[in-house]
Amino acid sequence: MSGEDDSNGWQLTESDPGVFSELLKTLGVPLIVDDLYSLDSESLASLQPLHALIFLFKWVSTSSDSMSGNYDPEFPGFFAHQVVNNACATIAVINALGNIPALESGPQLAQLMEFTNNMDPQTRGLVITSSDWLREAHNSLSPPSAISLDGLELPRQTEDAYHFVVYLPSMEFVYELDGLKPHAVRHGSYNESGEGWLSRAREVIENRIATYPPGALDFSLLALRGDPLLLLQAELAKLQTAGKQAEAAELVVKLESETSKRNRWNFENSIRRHNHVGLVHSLLVALAKAGRLEPAKENAKSVMKERIARAKMKGGVMDES
Amino acid sequence: MADSGTLLAFKAGRAFRREGTNFVDPSPTKGAILLRKEDDLLHLIWKNRATDEVEEDLILFPSDATFSKVSQASGRVYVLKFSSSDQRHFFWMQDASSARDEEFVNNVNGFLMDPDHEVSWGPSSQPEASTSTAGASSSSAPSGFQASPEQMAQLQQLLSSAVGGGASAPSEMSLNDILTPANMMPLFTSHPDLIPTLFPHLPPDLPMHPSSEVLQRIISSPQFRSAVSNFDQALRTGLLGGLVRQLGLPEEAGTGIEPFLRAVQRQADQETGEDGMDTD
């Protein structure tokens, strides 16, 4: 009855901490997402309070995907299936947020969670991805559609090949929430002492990475964490009233680097969602007015020729081998 | 499937108000709403798509009921209200895409008002955005750039039909190789007067004031680079005639990269002449 394509108006977004953090802000949640470059204790400790790890990988389909952990059809937490393409990042975030106890959130997210409360994962996924405001929040960080060629099958790097899996603690176990799997996956219990759930999660993720041949897996890790800006500000106020100047100065440095990161995110998000056609056009007009367009064209043509020649040579070499 | 009496049908599930609260819980059962005319009476029927059984059959008198979105609920929840009673029936749209919700709802309301309503597809009956945006965009050509939904739909259709037909044939040159930081940077020192003319095209929500430094940062950013390659690809399809007109360029400028750049050069020459800046 309708031309159901598989993205349903969900556009590609970049898997960038700035994009995720902006989405979290729209959801009214006091959390941010940061890149995680290592799973060592020190890196993890510096990101506390850490609520979930998002494992993001490009699927090199070596098939047989040996699964670790056990399906838990009785998982009492929040789990939604990913039912449309391009929504995977947002579904991963919602799956994580749905399992953080006593999380403060905006009214729309709170209502969506309430609304989907007793649903099975499939229906829940459908309801979430048919939520107009959420799709708009998600899409607001993708390039404007006037020049986006998504879905037109033109050669373009797509996000489809990327897959998002969330690891988080719930009910004394570390769970893996993968919107493409039928159920939540339970990965064994953890001990509250020491690093808590993170030591179990590290083990699971490292084992998972080890199952792929070296170099076959393109992945990154993101950390869903309490907004450090709020925490640092509160801490700084405390230190200052206690007169601990040296420690306060240290915090000020941290605060500054956190703030400059936010400024960078805001800048990037602002150019991310802007339609640059007008700028492209006026830059070219400016080049033309300055008499630099013709030389730039000639140069671009020779660059293209070289590129084609190089591609041919590469192709030729491959043919011989 | 649908017998001759069926006027309208679409996928929808039921939802129920939780007793004593304002919460409406959707029931996951797959279903469909059918509007049917039987013995000259309009029926709104809810059918379970799993069992194919009719579980609700409401007779509706003209102008007695309305079908409207429950704005307080997130998701696509609708309520059927009666003016003759305080009966309420809640539904939620189950078509995977919400794109046509409004059309279905407009048609349901059309039938509720007048059982002889004729189904109409497409944007709602009120002439909203469509005509006004088209007018606005053609009049204020060079400053902003916004394709109307119709133009976008048309473009996408053109593009999708052209794909496979060599739409992405290699071009002589790429815009990415022209709008390089290396090509652009000399402009900032040689023609500083041209820089402020670019400011109106920067994102309106930048966290800082426009400056040539900000402009250079944008030109070097991966986001801008990818916007350029998107536009480059779109231009290579040769089908951007309607879009380039909004940039004050003739339609043929949308037929490829070379024609586009030629038209840009002519436009620049013309503007330079008008400004009396013809120095070279």
Automatic annotation (TrEMBL), chain A:
Similarity comment: Belongs to the peptidase C12 family.
Active site, renumbered: C88 (nucleophile), H163 (proton donor)
Record site: Important for enzyme activity: D178
UniProt site positions, description: Transition state stabilizer: Q82
The keyword Oxidoreductase appears for this protein: no
Known catalytic reactions: Thiol-dependent hydrolysis of ester, thioester, amide, peptide and isopeptide bonds formed by the C-terminal Gly of ubiquitin (a 76-residue protein attached to proteins as an intracellular targeting signal)
Matches recorded under Pfam families: Peptidase_C12, UCH_C
Superkingdom per UniProt: Eukaryota
Domain UCH catalytic intervals: 9-226
EC number: 3.4.19.12
Name of the featured protein: Ubiquitin carboxyl-terminal hydrolase
Species name: Lentinula boryana
Keywords: Hydrolase, Protease, Thiol protease, Ubl conjugation pathway
Protease among keywords: yes
GO MF: hydrolase activity
From TrEMBL, chain B:
Region (Disordered): 116-151
Family matches, as InterPro entries: DEUBAD_dom, Rpn13/ADRM1, Rpn13/ADRM1_Pru, Rpn13/ADRM1_Pru_sf, RPN13_DEUBAD, RPN13_DEUBAD_sf
Stretches assigned to the DEUBAD domain: 166-274
Pfam families reported in the protein's UniProt record: Rpn13_ADRM1_Pru (PF04683), RPN13_C (PF16550)
Boundaries of every Pru domain copy: 2-115
Subcellular location(s) per record: Cytoplasm; Nucleus
Keyword Repressor listed: no
GO cellular component, as recorded: proteasome complex
Protein's name according to its UniProt entry: Proteasome complex subunit Rpn13 ubiquitin receptor-domain-containing protein
